[in-house]
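Thread: "does anyone have the structure for this chain?"

Original post by V.I.:
We have the sequence but no experimental structure in hand. Need at least a predicted one for the grant figures.
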Amino acid sequence: MSNHQPPLRLRLAGLILSEGLMARALRGSALTAAGFVGGQALRLAGNLILTRLLFPEAFGLMALVTVFMVGLAMLSDIGLGPAIHQNPRGDDPVFLGTAWTVQAVRGAILFLAACAVAPAAAAFYNAPDLGPLIAASGVGLLIAGFMPIRAELAVRHLRLGRLTAIELAAQAIGIAAMVALALALQSVWALVLGGLAAAATKLALAHALLPGPRIRATWDRTAAGALIRFGKWVFLSTLCGFLLAQGDKAILGRALTLEALGIYNIGYFLASFPPMLGLALAGRVLIPIYRETAAAADGAAARRRLRRMRAGLTAILLLALLGLALAAGPVVGTLYDDRYAAAAGVLAALAVAQVVPVIGLSYDQAALAAGNARGFFAVIALRSLGQTAAFVAGLWAGGLAGALAAFGAAAAVLHLAIIRLARRHGVWDPRHDAAALAVALPVAALALWVNRAAVAGLTALGG
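Reply from O.Q.:
Generated one for you, tokens below.
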């Protein structure tokens, strides 16, 4: 009998094309990463063009619009996606129809809420143009409410190819619309209307192209009860997550001029690439992986594969994050004109501040996969309150540079809460954390030293 194994390329092809968990996880990770990188490349290209067609104040206004749009979406999020991804009834048409009904009603309520909050937002930030911009952007929330639930089924089963293509196509059309409208209007309205074009395109393509059963609006009390029980903790988690994602801009909208906020937002835009990639992968890939790993027959081998995947993800994210931190000056100087030069200090400081959160990014999804939304909420609440309080205290004591330094320090301390949650669900990997910190911290210190003049210059942005 021959002991020869098939060639390596055939073994790899068999692994990648199979329907096993790790094969689907690898394909899902690759597609999510490719979609994210493609999407960010489109965003960057559009951003570079738009910063030359519009003015820094336009990006300051759009940053505030985004705060309210993300805030409304997050403050009403009851975790329909994660509920479908982890629930045993996640393939049941009745359960899915109930979830879609909730989603559609939520979209309509969000649109009305955006219209209601718009005048108060304009008055609070003393920006009269902000009100109409928020109300118009609310149409995008209404459109999102009618997305087919087949998108969540694709994530549940790690079949992400067509969904990724749809999202990229919608984003490309939205950015093209923004550029065309910016040429025609020379106004911040180009950004809002382009965003609506992207939302409408995504909805149309999803209905036309996503495979799977056509789910109708349904109401089932048992399904609704399961969604609500799971969703109440996700709702509270996203309430706190809003502070983590948008709290800085909401606070700085009062402390900085619109021009300075626009410059800050450019630095934030660049520094957010690696963490956003990590969150995209975590949200789409890790819950199904954790769910199926827990039930795998080869438990020890599955956990080893999970550890390798986590190590690879962390290495890629840290390489990108620290690369941006080290090259902050050349990156901003090459991509943007002199009006945005101060964004280099924001980029360097924010990239360094996010090193420790990136190391712990893959752990908390284990709680959601196990249905422990309450534990997930507890960690997010602690992080959001602690990091936001540190940001405000740092802003008061040392301006923008102090705010970013305090934010990073708080994030490092609060990593202990992530560790506690990970240990509870048996997924903490101390060797992973120790190795990542040993490599990342010296490079982060070097990045701050290289960019010391740019970081010190943050004082000029105000605060």
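V.I.: this helps a lot. Residues 10-17 have pLDDT under 50 and may be disordered.
O.Q.: and The CA atoms of residues 72 and 113 lie 8 Å apart.
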